[in-house]
Amino acid sequence: MHEFGIVVHVVDTLEKLATENDLTEIASVTLEIGEVSSVLPDYIVDAWKYLHKKSAVLTDAELKIERLPAVSICLDCKKTYPTLEGKKQCPHCGGFMTELVSGDEFNIKEIEGC
């Protein structure tokens, strides 16, 4: 479960940002997690429940998660498609020259501080 380590890093980053910006409390944090990022949102939530209470600035912070859809582009016809539906084959032209353009991200999107 690498999600625990990811949340440790998120908490460290949030504490650093709070210090740099003179925040005494963070009310909420929004994470973006790509559909094919290999990060499981449920495990992130479980790790968050344990770790955020150990930080003075995050004690009451709410965790919000936004899932980003996986999108691929066909290099032959230049059209995009939902990756999980088409996999490696373009549903538009049948080509196999495809690349993932989004959906593997993990970002801290937004922080609401006090």
Compose a concise summary of this entry.
This protein is of the alpha+beta class and 114 residues long. It contains three helices and six strands, in the order αβαβββαββ. The protein has a domain of 77 residues: hypothetical protein PF0899 fold, CATH 3.30.2320.50.
Secondary structure layout:
Elements: H1 3-20, E1 26-34, H2 41-51, E2 62-68, E3 71-74, E4 80-82, H3 83-86, E5 98-102, E6 106-113
Parallel strand pairs: 1-2
Antiparallel strand pairs: 1-6, 3-4, 3-5
Helix pairs in contact: 1-2
Tell me the Rg in angstroms: 18 Å
- Compute the number of helices: 3
Q: What fold name stands as the CATH topology of the domain at 3-69 and 104-113?
A: hypothetical protein PF0899 fold
Please count the beta strands (DSSP E, at least 2 residues each): 6
Order of helices and strands: HEHEEEHEE
Largest sheet report: 3 strands, mixed
Reading off the top of the CATH hierarchy, the class of the domain at 3-69 and 104-113 is best stated as Alpha Beta
CATH architecture of the domain at 3-69 and 104-113: 2-Layer Sandwich
Span between termini: 32 Å
Organism: Emergencia timonensis
Binding site for Ni(2+): 2
GO biological process, one term: protein maturation
Binding site for Zn(2+): 74, 77, 90, 93
